[in-house]
Amino acid sequence: MPNLLEVRDLSKRFTSAGGPFRKARSMHAVNGVSFDLPEGRVIGVVGESGCGKSTLARLILRLIEPSSGTVAFDGDDLLAKSPSQMRKLRARMQMVFQDPYSAIDPRYTLTRAVAEPFEVQGVKPARPMAEEVAELLEMVGLNPGLASSYPHQISGGQKQRVGIARALALRPSLLVLDEPTASLDVSVQAQIIGLLEDLRTELGLTYLFISHDLSLVKYFCDEILVMYLGRVVEALPDTAAPARHPYTRTLMESTFEPDPKKRRLIAPLEGEVPSPFDLPPGCAFADRCPQASALCRTETPALSSETGHAVACHHPL
Amino acid sequence: MKVSSMTARTLDTFARMSIGRAFASGIGMVAGGFLILLVLVAIFAPWIAPFDYAAQNLMNANAPPGWPHLLGTDEFGRDVLSRVIFGARTSLSVSATAIAISMAAGMTLGAAAGYFGGVFERAVMTVVDLTWSFPDILIALIFVAIIGPGLTSTTFAIAIAYLAQFTRLTRAQIVRLKRETFIEATINLGAKPSHILLRHLMPNAIAPVIVVGMLAIGDGIVLEATLGFFGLGAQPPTPSWGAMMSSGTAQLFLSPWVIIFPGVAVAVTVIAVNLFGDELIRALDIRDRLRGA
Amino acid sequence: MLSVRDLGVAFGAVEPLSGVSFSVDKGETIGIVGESGSGKSLTAMSVMGLLPLIGGRITGGRIVFDGQDLTSLPERAYRKLRGGRIGLITQNPMTSLDPLQKIGPQVDDVARLHLGMNANEARARTEEILGTLRIPEPALICDRYPHQMSGGMKQRIVIAMALAADPDVLIADEPTTALDVTVQAQIIRLLDDLVKQRDLALVLITHDMSVVAQTCDKVVVMYAGRAVEYGPVETIFDRPRHPYTQALIACIPRGLDDTARLTGIEGTVPTVINYPKGCPFHPRCTRAEAICATDPPDFSVEGDSAAACHFAEVADAQSA
Ligand SMILES: Nc1ncnc2c1ncn2[C@@H]1O[C@H](COP(=O)(O)OP(=O)(O)OP(=O)(O)O)[C@@H](O)[C@H]1O
Ligand SMILES: Nc1ncnc2c1ncn2[C@@H]1O[C@H](COP(=O)(O)OP(=O)(O)OP(=O)(O)O)[C@@H](O)[C@H]1O
Ligand code: SF4
Ligand code: SF4
Ligand SMILES: [Mg+2]
Ligand SMILES: [Mg+2]
Question: How many alpha carbons lie under 13 Å from residue A112 in its C-beta half-sphere?
Fold first, then answer.
């Protein structure tokens, strides 16, 4: 399969403005991330809060400009596109947002919200708009009778479905899912995940699935990228691959099985997550890593796949 | 379409506008009712006023309230009631026009500054903050002093005095809204800046601006009356509440009704506007959004 | 140690909680699970006697702690109990911490108030507790302000405050929801150790079934303000009897060893203003029949588990 997305050495640095009493500080929210997303596959990005998952999503869709690195979509360099070329291209790469509660304009009815992609792109659907909207709502499992409701009249799960309908309206090839179920109840989360699975096979979509929930990512994805403080520390080629990075192992051991017969011994973890504003030299995980050596505190390990699948660690497991 | 769902939608829209809800409380109803009445009086002044506001009758000057001059007459024997009624016309139309101009200009400037940011925003906000730091009356006086007295210059003076307020408020709204996910989501659909600004940002920013505009009409009336009082506003014989009070000061003790009734008109109107504005803020639940502007 | 029988709570005319029962003993952890709005926090508030604070009142049932009925306890007596023999840990540590005061004095206050210790004794105790919670350099931490610490560290301080008075029962309302998984695991481990070492009775409120599976001995499943199923953790996960529990468990992604597709539960979680009549789950239940829409089901007891469903025996028959 050709690569739909090729990300190379992508970085984003945020600088907080200095003031009379503060000095300007800067941090790498995303730091040298590279990966390929072949057509039709689902890659998961997993990591803890603030590790740069949403920033990565925004960079890939060019909703923010990277500090360095490149993104190629379908073989085309995204960063070379003019604003108007970029607007056209957006029809093919869509995103479902982390917070369904604020992802729809509160003054828009569902009809208007779902019809907006066509309006914005100047595309006339093959059938009358009302039919198209009803069809889209049905596709995401919403009763078309809700079409004239406002966002505040529907539940969080329903809002997220509207977000998915909007994203799918223009038949994109790539769908970036930024924690699409993080703010939803489990029973609703399962509905949405089931829906996304169906849509994927039905429409042949390619997903980039972002989540902090390792068991969800394992359930949903083909490959997994593990992020820690802006960097990809391990790229698991399939969901059964054993962890080679100590952080990945910690993450796996911290994720409980929903089965009382499989209780874990939780190994104590020393140290704190360092502030992204002043990362220590060397490996960012060194303070919490049981394997850490002197080398780890001086030299940042690069992502390398010499001895197995890609991992960024001096002493992989 | 089904009637029930259409009715539901209309009701829903009404509830969202919430102007209706401002009338729900007792205070809102009284204040709102008074304002509606006042607007009607201003519109239908020629039919309501018992006398010609300009007709002089020196034989009957300074007549106390009674029949047929319910609120008495002034030093030229003109009917005070008729002049107060026509004065409502002047005060309301000048203030409303001025605020409408100010709002339109302030919203455009504020929205552009908030949306585009950068140097443009800094330039606009520097000028606006400068005028913001002076009292409204001072700005208006300076302006009238430059352009010359009259209703047109009064209108523009008031418009300029309130420009900063609308610009700041609109900018604050836009900056806040720009961070909402639905804006990012719409950009991600491939929307042009004009679509974002006109279809999403402005419609969501407008409610608090309208409420502040509504409240500003009250202040505008006071400002218009003040300019009129100093003889810088409406020129005789056009009746205006401020000018009437100014001419009334000469006979403050001889015929106090000449100054009292226009004064009461200003006071009651301003109080009504403010009370109704407060109800509106409560009904729209936008108190938080008015802070910082 | 603590037992709740048929608890009901109302705010004015709405009754967001009814028919909640469970009990915990020393050295035992009970999990209260349910989706958002199902009444988990209200249950905790009721036990802590905090309902009057938010304008609610108990409409029925009993809360028995150490042989004493708390529903009729006067506020003065409650104040001694609360934060003393019954400790509370909330989801957001900042609701329990004073941002303007240093950590040390905040924790000291608990021991001084409830155990009548003097300043030195209290500080020694504080440092000891911080040590058992595996906080490095307790003396140093005592001199810090809350904003100088990470979320996981703040949550540990809150746990320390709850422990300072040497409680018998600890109620933890979503103590790890705001935390990252690695930090969550540490806090869970900590709570687990405490239950064993100090012989605590722990009421763990959460919406995360995996956390329940990892730590609890018994489970109460709540739905729309009611306890719908109650039993030992193995029973709840392996042989759930209530259709809601069954569906809820089917909603959890199980990674590799589960290939079944997730479907979720049709429909939406009801809110307090539209709690359905009869069985609250009937609009979403695949097994519902006419009676479910009209008659609220009683608990059907089977062994040491109970399910509020008219047709719980069907599940019994299936698992038999
Ligand atoms: N616009 C911005 N300006 C400055 N800093 C930012 C900005 N956006 C994100 N950050 C910072 O970048 C880091 C990564 O943020 P990001 O939102 O990508 O994390 P995340 O992995 O998505 O976290 P979460 O799981 O909480 O959503 C954070 O430390 C955040 O504070
Ligand atoms: N002060 C209050 N007045 C009226 N109703 C209330 C009040 N507090 C809570 N409720 C209602 O009681 C119900 C249960 O709320 P509770 O906070 O116990 O839910 P929960 O299970 O803790 O949910 P979550 O997982 O979101 O914390 C909700 O439907 C809520 O609307
Ligand atoms: S590089 Fe060193 S510190 Fe970092 S994860 Fe590997 S062993 Fe641990
Ligand atoms: S009582 Fe009826 S509706 Fe309720 S759970 Fe049982 S079968 Fe379903
Ligand atoms: Mg994020
Ligand atoms: Mg709660």
Answer: 12
Q: Each residue of B18-30: pLDDT tens digit?
A: 566 767 777 888 8
Q: Whose CA is nearest to atom 29 of ligand 1?
A: A50
- The b/e string for B20-40 (b: 16+ C-beta within 10 A; e otherwise) is ebbbebeebeebbebbeebee
Q: Which helix (H) or strand (E) holds A37?
A: strand A25-38
CA dist., res. C2 & res. B278, Å (int): 50
Cα torsion through B277, B278, B283, B286, rounded to 10: 90
Q: Which atom of ligand 1 is nearest to the CA of A230?
A: 14
Cα–Cα distance between A239 and A282 in angstroms, integer?
28
Q: Say how many Å lie between the CA of residue A194 and the centre of ligand 2.
A: 28
Cα–Cα distance measured from residue C230 to residue C227, given in angstroms and rounded to the nearest whole number: 7
- In whole angstroms, what is the distance from residue C245 CA to residue C243 CA? 6
All residues of chain A having their beta carbon less than 8 Å from the beta carbon of residue B10 are none
| H or E stretch covering A133 | helix A129-139
Contact partners, residue A56, CB within 8 Å, separation at least 6: A10, A30, A33, A45, A210, A227
Q: In what helix (H) or strand (E) does residue C228 lie, and over which residues does it extend?
A: strand C226-232
Cα of B239 from ligand 6 centre, angstroms: 64
**Residues 6 or more apart in contact with residue B152 via CB below 8 angstroms:** none
Q: Please, which chains are in contact with A (at least 3 CB pairs closer than 8 A)?
A: B, C
Ramachandran angles phi, psi of C213, nearest 5°? -60, -35
Q: Residue C154: how many CA atoms within 13 Å on its side-chain side?
A: 21
As given in the structure block, the two tokens for residue C165 are: 């008075």
CATH dotted code for C2-85+165-319: 3.40.50.300
- For B173, residues 6+ apart whose C-beta sits below 8 A from its C-beta are B110, B114, B204, B205, B208, B209, B289
> Where along chain C do its domains lie?
2-85+165-319, 95-164
Give the domain extent around B136: 48-267
- Could you tell me if residue B283 is inside a domain? no
Give ∠ CA C186-C191-C192 in degrees, rounded to 5. 95
What number is the ipTM of this complex?
0.89
pLDDT tens string A231-287: 999 999 998 899 999 999 999 999 998 888 888 888 887 777 888 888 888 999 998
CB B101 within 8 A of CB B155: yes
Overall number of domains in chain B: 1
The rounded distance, in Å, linking the Cα atoms of C272 and C42 is 12
d(CA C13, CA C244): 27
Q: pLDDT (tens digit, 9 = 90+) per residue, B133-156?
A: 888 888 888 888 888 888 888 899
Q: How far is CA A292 from CA A229, A252, A310, B116, in A?
A: 17, 19, 19, 48
State both tokens at B102. 């100010």
Q: What is the pTM of this model?
A: 0.85
Two tokens at A6? 């090729």
How many C-beta neighbours within 10 Å does residue B241 have? 29
Centre of ligand 2 from the C-alpha of residue C38, in Å: 7
d(CA C170, CA C24): 11
- Residue A69 to residue B117: CA distance in whole angstroms: 26
Q: Whose CA is nearest to atom 1 of ligand 3?
A: A313
Per the prediction, chain B carries an average pLDDT of: 83
* Alpha carbon distance C306, C229 (integer Å): 6
How long, in residues, is chain B? 293
CA distance A115 to chain B (A): 11
Give helix then strand counts, H and E, for chain A: 8, 10
What is the token pair recorded at B222?
């006071």
B83: CATH: 1.10.3720.10
Task: Specify if B143 maps to a domain.
Answer: yes
Neighbours of ion ligand 5 (CB under 5 A): A 54
